[in-house]
Amino acid sequence: MAGLNLEVFKFGMYVLFPIGIMYYFGTNLDDRFAVPDFWPKAENANRIPTEREEIKAELERLRARRLYFRDRRLAEEAARPQPPPTDETK
């Protein structure tokens, strides 16, 4: 008879424990445990382009950005003084 009582107890715990947790904390868990302004707004989030024109515009933007940084890097390298050549054959 002890085995049956243990099984009833375990079943009761499996069923009543989650129900008790839900009763204790309530139903508005999003309001109680949420951090305000944690997720970015839709207008600030990255959106993957899906239309053909959007993809072309994004590729053009990335190309212009890459060329801008390349030109800036080349200008900085040209402005940097070059070290004098050393003769390593001696």
TrEMBL record:
Lineage, highest ranks first: Eukaryota, Fungi, Dikarya, Ascomycota, Pezizomycotina
TM annotation in the entry: 6-25
Membrane topology: Single-pass membrane protein
Keyword annotations: Membrane, Mitochondrion, Transit peptide, Transmembrane, Transmembrane helix
InterPro entries in the record: Pet100
Pfam families named among the record's database cross-references: Pet100
Compartmental location: Membrane; Mitochondrion membrane
Family: Belongs to the PET100 family.
Protein name listed in UniProt: Mitochondrial cytochrome c oxidase assembly factor
